[in-house]
Specification:
The chain has 576 residues and is an alpha+beta fold. The protein is 39% helix and 19% strand. The strands form 4 sheets. Strands 11-13-14-15-12-16 form a 6-stranded mixed sheet, with helices on both faces. A 5-stranded antiparallel sheet has the order 3-2-1-4-5, with no helix packed on it. It is elongated, with a radius of gyration of 42 Å. The structure holds adenosine-5'-triphosphate (ATP).
Length: 576
C-alpha cells in the first residue's frame, strides 16, 4: 500500500462522519494513526490485502443471498387474479367481475380510478384490491348483436337456439355505430362487449357495382321505365308537392317478368338515374349503395338465421343512408323468401320471414330512406301482404322484347364505334344506316314464324296446342349474348389474319380488315339457342313455365320441338 493511499479519506477533505465508512476504511485510518516505520504498522499494512479480499467475498455472498430471497418471495407469493372493471359505483370503490362473480373492491391509491375504463382488465390481489391496470383483452368469444338497447346495452345471442344475453358496451364501444347483425367480441365473463369485428357477411357482402346506366341503355322497356319514373322519381324529386297533396308514396316496386329481360338492369338503371337526379337536386355528392340480394341465399336452415339476415340487410341500408349514400335493396327471386306458403317448401321459414320483412319495411320512413326493388319471374307467388298499399304496391311488368324492342336492344350493343365487315358498309349512306339495315335483316330472319325457328309446343288445359317460336322466348340477355359471341368470332378471325407488314399491335388492330359480319350474328343467334342454357335442362314443367308468358294454371304440358335432333347438329360458333 502506498503512502498516498494511507492518507486516503482525510486528505481528500470529505467529512468522515457524514457517511458510513467501510471496515477497510476504518482499518486504513487506524493504521494511519501509527507512526511511520513502526513494526506494528508494517505488519498491519501487510494484512490489508487479505482483509480487502475477505470483504469483497462477504459483499458477493450478501448480494447472492438477497437475490435468492427475492426469488423465494416471487415463487411463494400467491397469483393475482384478473378481473374486468365494470364501473365505479362510489368514491374510491370499483365494481369488478372476477371468474363470473361480482365484487365491490378498493383500489391501490397508486392507481387512478378515474382512468380505469369500463371493460378493461384489472389485476386484483388476495384482498381483491385492484393493484394493476392491464388494458383491454385482445382475444375472446365472438357473438352477434341481436338488438341495440339504448346507448349503453346490447342484446346478443339467441342464435341456433342459444339463450340471449344483455351486455354492456365497453368504453371502447361507447360510440361505435353498432346494429343488429354485427359481430362483437365479448369478455370471457360475458358481461361487456369489447370490440366490433368487421363481419364479411354484413356491410359489403351484398354490394353490387352500378355502372353508368342512363335510361337509354335499357332497350324496349319504355312502359316499365315510365312506370318506375312515375312511382319513384316523381315522389323523390317533388317531395313537397306529394306532401301537400298527402299522396301516399310506395316504399319501392316489384319488377316481374320472364328471365333475362332486364329486371336487374332496370334495377341498376333506377339506382344510377335516381341518385344522379338527387345529386343534382341537393348538390351533395350522393352515391348509390346497391344491395343485390338473391332470395334463395337468405333461406337458411339455422333457426332464426334467415330472420337475422333480413334484419341485418335493413340495418345496413339504414346505416348507409346515415353515411350519406342512397341505398337500394334489390331482392332477386323475391318469391323464394317473400312468397306465399304454397310457393316454397320452406313454408315454416316464410311464415316468420314475411311478417318480419313487412315490419322492417313499415319501419322505413319514406323512399328517401331506402328504395326497395323486388324482382321475380313468378309475381303470382308473392305474398299479398308484401304488396299492400304503403309497402310495395307498384307492380311493374318487364315484358319480353317484341320486334321493335329487340331492334332497340340490338342497337344498344351494336354500337357505331365497333369494327364491322366491309361488305356491310358498302353502298350505305352512313355507318349508322348500315347497322340499322343489318339489324332489320337479322330481325326478319329471327322473328320469322318458320319451321327452323319453332321451339316449343304448349298444350293448354282446353286441349289446344300452340307452337312457340324462338322469338317468343327472346330476351335482352340473349341479344346481348349473341352480340358478344359475334364479336368473339370476329376477334378470332382477326388473330388468324394479322395485317401483314404492320408491326405495331395498336396500328395493326386499327387497320384490321376483319369486323363483325352478318353471318357472325346469325351463327351466334343459332348457337345461343342450341348451346346456351336458355332452355331448361330438365323436363320439369315448372322450370319451363318460368320461360314462357302463359298463365301457369292454364298449361298442361310443354314439349320442346325436335330439340334433340338440333342439338346433334350444333353449329360451330367459333366462340372464344
Ligand atoms: P333474371 O330473372 O334471370 O334475373 P333479369 O330479368 O334480371 O333476369 P338481367 O339480369 O337484367 O335480366 O339481364 C341480363 C343481361 O341482359 C343484362 O345485363 C343486359 O346485358 C341484358 N339485357 C337484358 N334486358 C335488356 C334490355 N332491355 N336492354 C338492354 N340489355 C338488356
Amino acid at each position: 500500500m502506498s503512502d498516498e493511499s494511507n492518507q486516503g479519506p482525510e486528505d481528500n477533505g470529505s467529512p468522515s462522519d457524514e457517511r458510513e465508512i467501510s471496515l477497510l476504511e476504518a482499518f486504513d485510518r487506524a493504521v494511519a494513526l501509527l507512526p511511520a516505520g513502526e513494526l506494528a504498522r508494517e505488519q498491519l499494512v501487510a494484512l490489508r490485502a487479505e482483509i480487502e479480499a475477505q470483504e469483497e467475498m462477504v459483499g458477493d455472498a450478501r448480494e447472492m443471498i438477497e437475490r435468492l430471497e427475492q426469488v423465494i418471495k416471487k415463487v411463494t407469493s400467491p397469483a393475482n387474479r384478473i378481473g374486468i372493471f365494470l364501473g365505479s359505483p362510489a368514491r374510491d370503490t370499483a365494481q369488478i367481475v372476477v371468474g363470473g362473480a361480482d365484487y365491490y373492491c378498493n383500489v391501490d391509491p397508486r392507481i387512478s380510478l378515474a382512468r380505469l375504463q369500463k371493460g378493461t382488465r384489472v389485476l386484483v390481489n388476495e384482498a381483491y384490491v385492484i393493484v394493476g391496470d392491464l388494458g383491454f383483452e385482445t382475444a375472446g368469444p365472438v357473438t352477434k348483436v341481436a338488438e341495440v338497447l339504448g346507448t349503453d346495452r346490447l342484446r346478443v345471442g339467441a342464435e341456433h337456439g342459444t339463450q340471449s344475453l344483455v351486455l354492456q358496451r365497453s368504453a371502447q364501444l361507447a360510440k361505435a355505430p353498432l346494429k343488429a347483425g354485427d359481430d362483437v367480441r365479448v369478455d370471457a365473463n360475458y358481461r361487456v362487449a369489447l370490440e366490433l369485428l368487421a363481419s364479411p357477411q354484413s356491410r359489403d357482402h351484398y354490394l353490387d357495382v352500378v355502372p353508368e346506366l342512363p335510361w337509354e341503355k335499357v332497350g324496349g322497356q319504355q312502359e316499365a321505365l315510365q312506370a318506375i319514373r312515375d312511382a319513384i322519381e316523381l315522389p323523390l324529386l317533388h317531395e313537397e308537392l306529394f306532401q301537400k297533396f298527402q299522396h301516399a308514396t310506395p316504399k319501392g316496386f316489384l319488377l316481374y317478368g320472364p328471365p333475362g329481360c332486364g329486371k336487374t338492369l332496370i334495377g341498376k338503371a333506377t339506382a344510377y338515374n335516381l341518385t344522379k337526379q338527387l345529386r343534382g337536386k341537393s348538390g351533395a355528392d350522393m352515391r348509390e349503395y346497391f344491395m343485390h340480394i338473391k332470395g334463395p341465399e337468405i333461406l337458411n336452415m339455422w333457426v332464426g338465421e334467415s330472420e337475422r339476415m333480413v334484419r341485418e340487410i335493413f340495418a345496413t341500408a339504414r346505416e348507409k343512408r346515415r353515411e350519406g349514400y342512397m341505398p337500394f335493396l334489390f331482392i332477386d327471386e323475391a318469391e323464394s323468401i317473400l312468397g306465399t306458403r304454397r310457393a316454397s317448401r320452406y313454408s315454416s321459414i316464410l311464415s316468420t320471414l314475411v311478417p318480419m320483412f313487412c315490419t322492417e319495411m313499415d319501419g322505413i320512413d319514406s323512399l328517401n330512406e331506402v328504395v326497395i326493388i323486388l324482382a321475380s319471374n313468378r309475381a303470382d307467388l308473392i305474398d299479398p301482404a308484401i304488396l299492400r298499399p304503403g309497402r310495395i304496391d307498384r307492380k311493374i311488368k318487364v315484358n319480353r322484347p317484341n320486334k321493335e324492342g329487340a331492334r332497340e336492344i340490338y342497337r344498344i350493343y351494336l354500337t357505331d364505334d365497333l369494327p364491322y365487315d366491309a361488305a356491310l358498309l358498302e353502298g350505305a349512306e352512313s355507318k349508322a344506316a348500315a347497322i340499322d339495315a343489318l339489324i332489320g335483316r337479322l330481325l326478319e330472319t329471327q322473328f320469322a314464324k318458320k319451321e327452323e325457328n319453332r321451339l316449343l309446343e304448349v298444350t293448354l288445359r282446353s286441349g289446344r296446342k300452340e307452337a312457340l317460336f324462338r322469338s317468343d322466348v327472346i330476351s335482352g340477355a340473349i341479344i346481348a349474348s349473341v352480340v358478344e359471341r359475334a364479336k368473339g368470332m370476329a376477334i378470332k378471325r382477326s388473330i388468324a389474319n394479322p395485317v401483314a407488314g404492320i408491326a405495331d399491335p395498336g396500328e395493326r388492330a386499327r387497320a384490321n380488315p376483319e369486323g363483325i359480319s352478318e353471318a357472325d350474328l346469325q351463327v351466334a343467334y343459332n348457337a345461343e339457342y342450341l348451346e346456351n342454357e336458355i332452355l331448361p335442362a330438365t323436363d320439369i314443367t315448372e322450370d319451363w313455365l318460368k320461360l314462357i308468358d302463359y298463365d301457369p294454371d292454364n298449361v298442361v304440358k310443354i314439349s320442346p320441338v325436335r330439340l334433340l335432333d338440333r342439338a346433334k347438329s350444333k353449329p360451330t360458333s367459333g366462340v372464344i
